[in-house]
Amino acid sequence: MTTAITDASPIHDDSRERLARLEGIAGQLLDRCRDAGASQAEVSCSEDHGLEVNVRMGEVESVESTRDRGIAVTVYFGQRKGSASTADLREDSLAATVEQACAIARHTEDDAAAGLADAELMASDLREFDAWHPWALDAQDAVSLALAAEQAGRDADARITNSDGAGVGTGTSLGVYANSHGFVGAERASHHSLSCALIAGHGEDMQREGWYSYALAPGDLDPAADIGRRAAHRAVSRLDPSPVATGRYPLLFSAEVARSLIGHLLGAVSGGALYRGASFLVDAAGEQLFPDWFAIHERPFLPRGLRSASFDAEGVATRESPLVDGGVLQRYVLGSYSARRLGLATTGNAGGVHNLEVAANAGGFDELVRGMGDGLLITSLMGQGVNTVTGDYSRGAAGFRVEGGAITHPVDGITVAGNLRDMFRAVEAVGSDVDPRSHIRTGSILVGGMTVAGAD
């Protein structure tokens, strides 16, 4: 059985030739748009290849190989916009796509915020960030890795009674964005994952938990056996939960769930939510939201960063900049359309943020647990109880009781509630135990004094 994870690439890597072909298609489409009378146009072309396998209880459940491609065309006639897309690269299909986009634009209303991002903002320093690591993995070797992860987990503890399966995924993506300013940007990236989910206990006392590894290079994945054993440990550790009384507790959000708190901040400071008035942080730029030591910086140029890029989805040059510094919200997260709607300038975030880093002010996980005294460690969150308009927060949760700076027993079936503004101000510590599996890079976050609804 093959279980080693190697960083081998295919013998023949034709990615640059395929990117060149996509660039050629983008150029042809822009020419067609100009000939059709469009005052501005933009084209996105993509190709994705992937392999996904899943096993359960030592048997193969699924093997899926994917090959997808897409072409999206957007045209502007003044400030009227039309878009169309296709996956067919034949000449007549490409011509029809341009015609459809133009027809839509001619029948839409003027939108004062419509149009390409300003030409002077286009990126000129186009680089790669070590994101291309295709994996020469066939289906049988992928199955072997998944089986190894699952078996290691099932063997790790006699209390593991069932499996929810293990999986391996690998894929590559190529993308080209071009517009009528003359900008052409090409990107290529790979992505790989290995996961396992196990069930411990019997009857009503069963607990399900899992673990996964995600990386751009296969050599950066955790070993299959380690993933299985960690999934087993997490499942077993949740057996025999004890109730917790309703009250107010300090909450330590473990790193893998702490990033959701930063995600709620991003949702509230994104341009779409702001110009629709659907955010509790409207007009909050320049406001103290967090303690004065708290900081979040955007790092788009990290080597092998999960969201590193020289340009955003509109070709605008990305840049390193603080989102929060000294606890103060420094800016919003804007593309050109939302920026115009708000009377502001794009922040180079069309398509999202690029590698956010939350600065730590504390040590690792064990130090945080010791320092919190009595409270709750939150390792799992359920439900969607977050109101982005008001900031009200209420989610089901599970984790562990912490007493005297030590984890004492698992808890589940609780609800944690508060308001995001209050939660942000109540952040007491950010740990150095960064979870590397997301472009939001944060350690565990300790929030003082949240309401917890328990057994009573």
TrEMBL record:
Gene3D superfamilies: PmbA/TldD superfamily
Annotated ranges, domain Metalloprotease TldD/E N-terminal: 41-105
Ranges of residues in domain Metalloprotease TldD/E central: 133-239
InterPro entries with a match to the protein in the record: Metalloprtase-TldD/E_C, Metalloprtase-TldD/E_cen_dom, Metalloprtase-TldD/E_N, PmbA, TldD/PmbA_N, TldD/PmbA_sf
Positions of the Metalloprotease TldD/E C-terminal domain: 246-454
Protein family: Belongs to the peptidase U62 family.
Protein's name in the database: PmbA protein
